[in-house]
Structures are given as C-alpha cells and as structure tokens.
Amino acid sequence: MEPSSGATVTTVKGYACQRRTPLQHHNTLLTDALLVLAENAEFCENEGRSVAFRRAGSVLKALPQAVRKMEDLQGLPCLGGHSQRVIKEILEDGKSREVEMMLQSKQYQAMKALTSIFGVGVKTAERWFREGLQRHTDVVNSGYKLNHTQQAGVQYYDDLNTPVTKAEADAIGQIVEEAVQAVLPGAEITLTGGFRRDKLTGHDVDFLITHPEEGKEEGLMPKVVSWLEARGLLLYQKTNTNSYLESTDGPARPSHNMDRFERCFSIFRLERPHARPEQHPQATCEEQPQDDDSARERRASQSPGWKAVRVDLVVTPVSQFAFALLGWTGSQLFERDLRRWAGQEKHMSLSSHALYDSKQNRYLRASSEEEIFAHLGLEFIPPAERNA
Ligand code: GTP
Ligand code: MN
Ligand code: MN
Fold first, then answer.
1. What does the alpha-carbon distance between residue 309 and residue 204 come to, in Å, rounded to a whole number?
2. Structural domain tally of the chain?
3. pLDDT of 164 over the 50 cut
4. Is residue 94 included in any domain, yes or no?
C-alpha cells in the first residue's frame, strides 16, 4: 500500500539497459536542465562528468511519475550530489540558477552553435571560440580553411539543424531501397537509430543494409553511393571501408570489438513534396492557392525545392546483423550501459559485430536482438523503450 503522506518509493535499476525508458516521460523540466550541464561538461572535454549528468537524467526519464519533492528521489541510482542540488533548486524555485547562467553564457552559446556545424567537434569549436568566433556565419566570414565535411556543414547549416521528420525519413528510405535493389537485388534495408525507437524527429536517418546470403553484401557500399551520385541525390558523402569511431566506441575498446563495417556518412538532397493539388480543388494555374505568411517565410528562408538531410548507411554481413541492429538503435546511453553491463556483470564483451564470452572463451551467436538480451541475462527491452 502506498504511504499517504510519505514519498512514492520507486525502484529503478542501475543500468539503463535494465530499464524501460519511453520517449515521453514526466520529468522534462529536470532532464532538460541536467542535459545542459551534460553538454557543458562535454564542451569542457570532461566526459566523465557529462556521462554522470546524462545518467542522472536518464534515471528520471524512467520514473512513472513526476518528481515533486526530494524524498521522491530516495533509493534512486546515479544521482550524484551536483545533480541533486540542481533538482532541489528546480523543485523549490522552478529553475536552477546555475543552469540559467550557463544558458546565458557566451561560451556555452558559442560552443553550442559551433558544434552544431556538421564536421565540427569540441576541440575545433573551442579553438574557434578562443579566436573570437561565435556563430556559423562567423566561420564563413573568417576565411578559415575548412575541411570538406565542415564546408558541407556550413553550406547546409540551416537544413541540417532543422529536425528530420518521420515522413522525410520514410522518403529517404524509399530512395535507399531503390538504390540497394538496383545494385544488389534481394538485399534488405532496415531503419535504425532514433526513428526505430519511435522518435518523431531526428538529427539524421540511420539505415542498416544486409543480404540474407552471407558475403553477398561485400563491396556493396561504393555501388550504392555511385548509384545515388549518378542521380544527383548526394550533396556529400564520406565512405569508410574499415572504420573505427573513437567517439562512440571509446579509445579502450579491444581490437576485436572495433567497428569495421562499411559505412557512409552522407547528406542527401531530398526533394520537397509539392503543394498537393487535392488540398486546393478550386485552384487553377492563374489562381495560386492562398497561403499564410508563415508558409511564405518558411519557403523564402529555405533552399528552394529540396532539403539537405543527414543520412548514415551501414552495410553488415547477415551473421552480424542482430549485433549491428542492437548497436545502432541506441540510445547512446542505452548502448553504453549495455556494454558496461556485459563487461562488469557478465565478463562479456559486446560490440556492434559480436558478443564475446571471456569465461567460456568463445563468441556467442545470435540472429535476433532477443537472443542477445538472453545471452546477457537481461529482460528484452523493445526499441521504443530504449530512449534512455
Ligand atoms: P538522432 O539521430 O539525433 O535522432 O538520434 P540517434 O539515436 O539516431 O543518434 P545517432 O544517429 O547519432 O546514432 C544512432 C545509434 O548509433 C546510437 O545509438 C549510436 O550509439 C550508434 N552509433 C553512432 N555512431 C556509431 C559508430 O560509429 N559505431 C557504432 N557501433 N555505433 C554508432
Ligand atoms: Mn540518428
Ligand atoms: Mn546517425
């Protein structure tokens, strides 16, 4: 029975991969504040601190109700002193002075703006800020030499910082499907990343590509890229055949865990859907349908006729597909905790390619995500509840 005056005691497990975290939750005021602190720590290159704030926020996302008083936090994991202080302030005053000041600070604002340029990481943004740059337009005007990726980043800045909708993701999916079928009939594409977690918008669209017959997928990426380029559908692409990304896998990953998929970071040129005639049945050629100011402004401020959309493509052998799917669905914190759980609790090593059991000295096979959760001794969490 629930105590009538005391705190609502909720138990929350310590690893994000042990919890169900829906997209919608009850503590956005608190989690938004903690996210600012996490971002700021990232801007200061303090990853440990950043992850600590993200973990605290993630625990609050998993709560079945809004936190109303500090006693509601009793027994919850991952809430450090600093996070608790900020939560307390917000519960009492509706906002945190520290977070408000951070949001107002020149440095935070500049770092946020500069790192939102595709191809610009914290180190570059930091240097540019010290040299007096604050916005992406300052970068354009600085005359600094930009690499290929950063050039695309500033050129398509507005589009790339406009959230991608599910409808746009589906439209990209149709194009990728057509490209893949044209170069390797029978190959299969799967939408992954945030959209697989049922997010309504994303910063990009992520796809896995595989073929039911092992080995058939080899060398597929360059062909897909050529097909797309020949049709003018790519504004930018960078293909890695043997990639290892420190940012997500961490510098200490053992070599057998390296991410070696063929992958392509790209920017698609997505045609905007034309005004639908069926919505204006009386409109003729002379008589343009009336539109409101905001629609006109929107069109004027955007590149005409098309939108630049970030797309990640990953080719995987079918034997590794389940691991790749689990590894690319996210969220990032969910993935981080899956690997931590595997290592610390199970003496196993999980990557987007495989699961290695150090006690048995062997790889554990899996052809579905469910099997991987079972190997790890975890209850299966469906993608929509991995929004940690
Ligand atoms: P939005 O794109 O912002 O909507 O969120 P998202 O969750 O889709 O993020 P993102 O596209 O950045 O990444 C999707 C998932 O792929 C995340 O869980 C990442 O951890 C994972 N991921 C991203 N890059 C890599 C990589 O280089 N290697 C591996 N193995 N996983 C990656
Ligand atoms: Mn994504
Ligand atoms: Mn991505």
1. 7
2. 3
3. yes
4. yes
